[in-house]
Please model this.
Amino acid sequence: VSRNDFEDAVRKALQEASPSDVPRSLEDSVLRIPATRARVGRAFGWGRGWAPVLLIAVVVATGSIAFAAIRAIPGAGTPQHPLQITSPFGLLSAADIDITVGGASVSSGMPASAGPNASFTGTATFGQVMINWEAGGRPYVLLMHFAANRTSWWLSDAEVTDGRPSNAGWIYFEGPSLETPLGGTFDGSLTLPSVRSTFGEAGTISLGQLRLKAFQGFAPHDPAIGTMPLGGSGSGVPAYVPVDTNGAGAGYVSSTWLTQTPITSFEGQPPDQPVFAADLRTVIGYMVAGRGFVPGQSPLSS
Amino acid sequence: VRGDVIAEQTIQIRSGGRAAELVFARLVETELASAYATASLLLGDQNEAEDAVQDAMVKAWQRLHQLRDQSRLGAWFGRILINQCRDRLRHRTSTRVRWVLPTPDQSIGQIAERDALLTAIGMLPPEQRIVVVLRFYQDLSLKALAERTGVPIGTVKSRLHNGLQAVRAAYDGQARLDVRQR
Model:
């Protein structure tokens, strides 16, 4: 038997012996890892440097964030649409997507599907849906991020690529929007004007006959204020701040959006799950060591 | 391919903490099936392979900050997986033999030949088994094998050579047996 024949036989034997499918149990357990396991070390993609500061944020800071007007029109029906994504975490369907950049529509109509990389995942206080599609030979990616507290969930921000065929930029949108009772489904249409973009153009995104539900399967989460470590060092700004609005826990927010300060590390601890910087952008105040709760005040201005 | 390009763009453009979840989602999407198959072949036990892949994925998630080059996500995770499998192989006290059901178009001789090969691969010491499986199942180059296993190319070559010799002996032995049976 020649060497080549022998090596081909080895290849063939290994191919035949390899399992053809991944067990569903493995797939499920692996997909739950981000929601159930804390990462160690410094956080992915963030720079070093931040000093531990005993600040805990609170408050919904409409004044701190340049909210754009957001129009959500509830009430439409929810037929089966080509654009659909369902997962253990949530569901989304829409009749159409229209994106405008600089006043011109760059993508309208209906994606054939949610895309090969579509995903809808999350934890008890943070969720994300990613949809990708192609229209007119141009690839598009839409990311929507969600936050939840003990009583409701809402769209915290979104971004979509601007339709450039290569080196596409992002058009950014910000919430909160679509606030819905936890366990409930939003039915309606949504139009968001942009707050900024990679190339400085204004834009909008509209989703027609939107049906959206997030955080399904998660029990209402009451953040354990004071037990969440504020890891990192150097910046003097807290990485994450538990939010508490009128006694209703509102999850953890990041201060990086306000400060633009890189955050080094963060480790969630059971039963809290890690939430990453810039996931939630609404800061309503801070708990300062020795001073208690200081509402509506950025640590940078105090 | 288009989807991969989009996912890559997404990951590269974003720089916040959510990037970690995107990278992990991409890892699961692109590597899970291959990782499970590779672990099954290395360990010869699909239940143990499931545990090894789960452990490797947890480790990857926990150490995601150590990933320097996202374009090498697969190779980076491959090293974690191989380390998991190696640890399990080293701590074994007995050798497991994998049984494969024949497909209808295979002769008894073909099945015997394949089982002889698989049994011989299963009897190899862990380090030899790893390079043989990665070389002939994943079609990794010698350089990639060296990176994946963390040893010099010369060591990879000698492990591959010795491993193949042992498997070849089993294969030739089965061939002689087939001739006698005819």
Remarks:
- Chain B touches chain A through 61 residues (CB under 8 Å).
- Residues 1-17, 94-104 of chain B have pLDDT under 50 and may be disordered.
